[in-house]
Amino acid sequence: MALLRKRVARRTDVQVAAAEELEGKRLPTPKASLPSQYSATGRPVRQRKRPLVTDMVDVTAVEDDFVNVTESESEIDQPTQRVNNKKRKRSPPPSLTPDRFLDPSTSSASYPSTPLSLQTNVPVLAPTSTPISLTFNIPAGFQGPLTINIDANNLLRTPPLSQQTAAASKYASPAPSSIAMPQRKRAGSIVSRSLPGKVGFLDLPPEIRNEIYRSAFIKDQRRINFSTPSQFQRSTALLRTCRQVAHEGASILYSECEYYFRRNTSSRTPLWTTDSKEIGFSDVHRFLKMIGSTNVARLRHVFFLLEDAVPCLNPQFKTAEERRYVHDEHLKAALRIIADHGRLQTLKLGFFGRRNVAESDSNFLNEIKGIKADSVEVLARRCHPDWPRLYSNLQWPKIFFHLALDVKTAVTRKKKFYLPWKEGKKDFFEDDSEEESREARLCRDCGDVHV
Q1: H or E stretch at 303
Q2: Using CA atoms, how far apart are residues 170 and 163, in angstroms rounded to an integer?
Q3: Mean pLDDT of 80-96
Q4: Is residue 320 over pLDDT 50?
Q5: 275 and 234 inside one domain
Q6: Residues near 358 by Cβ (< 8 Å), separated by ≥ 6?
Q7: pTM of the prediction?
Q8: Strand arrangement of the beta sheet that strand 258-262 belongs to
Q9: CB 300 within 8 A of CB 335
Q10: Terminal alpha carbon distance of the chain
Q11: Where is the composition biased (Low complexity) (predicted)?
Q12: Do 268 and 247 fall within a single domain?
């Protein structure tokens, strides 16, 4: 056992010696020549693309690195403290005193390097400025603060004393006759807006312009009859001068005239055929379409005289039922336009056909009921222009009485803001049960009974 231990010890000694020889002869590994991965402070070192030259060392760079490292270490070690930034105070505003009250000589001599906006001293008035005197009459026993508000802009408007004396001497030197004094405008003087010294039509008062419009458009007759177009010779060229004249003149032309819509029994031949046809209510329909919805809304007084077509002028209609006005498409279209855009005050209806309007003509009656007016009147036989030559034997218009009452009730606009009776007189159709009492009102024009 002792021999084995000695051999092992010898072997170990031999092995140790061989290992030392190998370590002396071993080449340095490439990993041993590389720099360490971490710095002295424990931070990882970035890999550089270029090899680090260790021949020369910059001392300042080493010091900077050391300082940065120490600062970063201190930042890590110490917790961050919040810095309270104080709000900056606003700089004082510039002086509100006008510059002309400052003496330039004194300010430049005493403060040559300080700008005007930074001067906080009391401004010195210039010796050449106008003296300002303030007088306060305080009553006896006055208690309380006395507040004085002086606007610097008003002080700027007052010229200095030297300029006032110079201006006074300037205006006092010439003769009074050579000075051109401004002329005062009279109360009744009219000055043109476009050309000075000339008076135009729009410079006249509105009342005078309205009288001119009435004399040009209305004249002596306020009714415009579509059955005899001779009254259409009223010149409307005045409406084409400008927009203001067109607006003012159209309001009088359409609102103060009564438009009498009656069947025109004249014939007209279209260009594409040789057969002449009756005009009828086609011109009425064309007129309402041509003036537009704006002028239709200006209509205030409308009179419809409804008659059937003439047999000899309408050969295309074979029966009397086809010639009735309740089937006229132009008349229905005209009624529809007035119902959509009209704002009538008075509406007069005359039913003078060959047959009475019955319940079967509900389509035509619905077109009439679409119109709204302040007052509606169903005319009697004597209001027809051809009475008594044609309608002397008629006792009532060609419409049943109850239908006339329905039309009047539906067309009349409801009075919402005032009572339906005035001065104790009730409406003609209210609270009357007997038909005889309803027929008691007479027409002022013809003396006949109206609905």
Answers
A1: strand 301-306
A2: 10
A3: 71
A4: yes
A5: no
A6: 400, 403
A7: 0.50
A8: 223-225, 258-262, 301-306, 344-351, 373-378
A9: no
A10: 159
A11: 104-118
A12: no
